[in-house]
Write a structure and sequence with these properties.
CATH superfamily: Lipopolysaccharide (LPS) transport protein A like domain
CATH class: Mainly Beta
Largest sheet: 12 strands, mixed
Oligomer: single chain
Structural class: alpha+beta
CATH topology: lipopolysaccharide transport protein A fold
Distance between the termini: 40 Å
Strand content: 35-45%
Shape: globular
Radius of gyration: 19 Å
Length: 224
Amino acid sequence: MQRRFAIRKDLLSKHRDFRLATAVAAAFCAAIAFVPAPALAQQQNPQSVPFGGLNLSNGKEPVQINADRLEMRDKEGIAIFTGNVSVVQGQTVLKSGKMTVYYARSGENNGSQQAQPQAAAGGLGAAGIDHLEVSGKVYLKSGTQIATGDSGTYDAKTQTMTLQGKKVVLSDGDNVATGCKLTANTGTGRAFLESCKGQSGRVSIILTPKNEQQGNRAGSASRN
């Protein structure tokens, strides 16, 4: 039977390798923390649509990573989580088949030893994270907001998170927007959804009036 690998930030912070892994976990949650954006728009022709980004946890809650396997390549500055990867922090859940984290190797990040406590608390810059990659049916959920795609990346230098695939879906309740690439800047909170090349060239949006949503919920409650 294959054993699953789990990391809990509050229990494993005393060990060096686990400190690194938990810093990776905290940094990853900071990386995907889209601050509320004023609008989600099509990049070629920005138009306001009713999605304010993904409101993720603020980094104060414990971070837990579950995966079938973890490979640490400290000399290369790479941590690879594979097999049913799950990252949970508060109401935020990320699932993927694989997550690869590229970080500053020992001695490369100035003051790295002093930076580790900040990293464990969710400090992205202090953790020395360069960039992250996730793949294999990426699923990201925070509250009622859900984003799905085939793969995703985060660049710490530009503070840019991308989610892409044959069909990228961003939903909030009954409201749904679809495209092929979602790009969000975690510094400004600005998010863009791009259409698929070679298709209609449009982002598809389905909006449900609030009164209809409330009616659907009321009907569901009465049936229960």
